[in-house]
């Protein structure tokens, strides 16, 4: 379990983190989302004891990271693949990590296998692609069988197959009880991987909710409708007071309506519909609404949802 309580960090007059609090429990993938400069990296650095907070505390497994004698056995981290020593081979890198954390070296081959690098064990890291370095970083993070994983942008540099692999890998780890915290900009990926999302903006927690609840609370459901008479249908719907947008693929997205009402309106005006489906919102829409960015509706007010960082947690 990761616990962050009321963290504040100032750099001169600028406040990087302003009262951030949340937890990432065992058996769950928690996503940490936020725009550039929101305070994610500062929060992660505080968690890893790399930056001292002005206020608050950050605990891994109930203790500050800096008090862990062999941190790799408690928390695995994947921060920057580029910090790997490029002259070493994959195996040498893991051997060095194992030795410095008193981890039996027998585990190395198993970890290389798990991340799909068994054939590259003796390849120098300098010959690795970014995706391979991410996989090696993950092997290192898993070396001590940690119950907590802290990953910064884990899908960076991975191809489509690698992204799917990483997603199921992290989901499997959580299913076996690991607490996984993923800091990322990749909204679609976070939506597919995380059970729970913490959104940070301007150093504060804007939302701390299960992924599905965050989406339903901060997006408006819409109906996607297609018809050969798109222009006429659009005019009819707008006349009836609905907000209508052109959807990808040439259909119409109608906010705030149900399929029955749209079907009835089309019938009344003798417009034949080709498709009529209820669509739920996306994490991206919810996120834009929360951070108040252009494209986001900001229809639900600006109050932080989780002032103490704990509301709405299970
Ligand atoms: N060492 C530092 N000195 C001064 N200001 C800093 C320092 N580190 C971070 N900041 C500022 O604190 C704020 C939060 O930065 P942080 O890197 O934590 O955000 P972030 O959410 O990780 O953004 P990104 O996704 O771009 O990495 C930013 O305004 C940043 O400029």
TrEMBL record:
Residues 2-227 form the ABC transporter domain. SUPFAM superfamilies: P-loop containing nucleoside triphosphate hydrolases. SMART domains: AAA. This is ATP-binding cassette domain-containing protein. It comes from Streptomonospora wellingtoniae. One of its GO terms (molecular function) is ATP binding. The keyword ATP-binding applies. The keyword NADP does not apply. Residues 293-314 are annotated as: Disordered. It holds the Pfam family ABC_tran. Keywords: ATP-binding, Nucleotide-binding, Transport. Belongs to the ABC transporter superfamily. InterPro entries: AAA+_ATPase, ABC_transporter-like_ATP-bd, ABC_transporter-like_CS, P-loop_NTPase.
């Amino acid at each position: 379990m990761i616990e962050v309580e009321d963290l504040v960090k100032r750099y001169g007059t600028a406040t990087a983190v302003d009262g951030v609090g949340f937890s990432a429990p065992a058996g769950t993938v928690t996503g940490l989302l936020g725009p550039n400069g929101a305070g994610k990296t500062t929060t992660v650095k505080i968690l890893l004891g790399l930056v001292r907070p002005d206020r608050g505390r950050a605990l891994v497994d109930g203790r500050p990271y800096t008090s862990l004698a062999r941190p790799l056995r408690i928390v695995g981290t994947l921060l920057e693949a580029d910090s790997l020593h490029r002259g070493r081979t994959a195996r040498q890198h893991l051997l060095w990590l194992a030795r410095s954390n008193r981890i039996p070296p027998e585990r190395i081959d198993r970890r290389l296998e798990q991340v799909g690098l068994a054939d590259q064990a003796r390849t120098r890291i300098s010959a690795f692609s970014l995706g391979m370095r991410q996989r090696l970083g993950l092997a290192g993070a898993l070396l001590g069988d940690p119950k907590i994983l802290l990953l910064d942008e884990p899908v960076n540099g991975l191809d489509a197959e690698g992204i799917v692999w990483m997603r199921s890998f992290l989901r499997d780890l959580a299913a076996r009880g690991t607490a996984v915290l993923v800091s990322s900009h990749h909204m679609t990926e976070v939506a597919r991987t995380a059970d729970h999302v913490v959104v940070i903006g301007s150093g504060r927690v804007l939302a701390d909710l299960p992924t599905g609840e965050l989406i339903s609370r901060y997006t408006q459901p819409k109906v996607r409708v297609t018809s050969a008479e798109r222009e006429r249908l659009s005019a009819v719907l707008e006349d009836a007071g609905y907000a209508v947008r052109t959807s990808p693929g040439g259909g119409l997205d109608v906010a705030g309506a149900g399929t029955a009402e749209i079907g009835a309106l089309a019938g009344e005006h003798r417009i034949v519909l080709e498709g009529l489906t209820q669509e739920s919102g996306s994490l991206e829409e919810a996120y834009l609404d929360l951070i108040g960015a252009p494209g986001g509706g900001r229809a639900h007010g600006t109050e932080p949802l989780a002032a103490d960082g704990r509301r709405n947690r299970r």
